[in-house]
Amino acid sequence: MHKTFENNGLRMGRMISAYKIAPDGCFCVFNANVITRNQNKVWYGDLNITREELKLKKIAQEIGEPLYVLREMDCRFDGEKDSIETLISKAVWSTE
User: Fold this and answer.
1) Integer angstrom CA distances of residue 96 from 13, 73, 79
2) Which helix (DSSP H) or strand (DSSP E) does residue 28 occupy?
3) Which of 3, 14, 57, 92 could be a cystine partner for 45, CB 3.0 to 4.6 Å?
4) Cα–Cα distance for residue pair 92/5, rounded to 1 Å
5) What is the mean pLDDT of residues 60-85?
6) Domains in the chain: how many in total?
């Protein structure tokens, strides 16, 4: 799975801004977690949704299921233990 993201220019754990500041007009999720219904957490790192929406949609198509983007605290530490339905409900963006 990590290879699919990497092949689309999204390296695992990447940082797009040391100061966690989104460029004007961009929706960014810093320290994002990406999950799928069937594989749970599949990727983490900084995402610029505005600029990378098409990449994320392409990845979803390649793996055959939607991607859900969550903020760091919604899918780390104890949050990872939540049911997949609970995690999906916390998504700030998805490919659906």
Assistant:
1) 24, 22, 22
2) strand 28-36
3) 14
4) 19
5) 89
6) 1
Closest alpha carbon to 18 in 30, 2, 5? 30
Write out the residue range of the structural domain in which residue 25 sits: 2-94
- Read off the tokens for 20: 């966690």
Cα(94)–Cα(8) distance, rounded to whole angstroms? Answer: 17
Residue whose C-alpha is closest to residue 15's, from 39, 41, 48: 48
Each residue of 39-56: pLDDT tens digit? 989 999 999 999 999 999
52/22 Cα distance (integer angstroms): 13
Q: What pTM does this model have?
A: 0.93
How many CB atoms lie under 10 A from the CB of residue 15?
A: 11
* pLDDT class of 81 with cuts at 50, 70, 90: confident
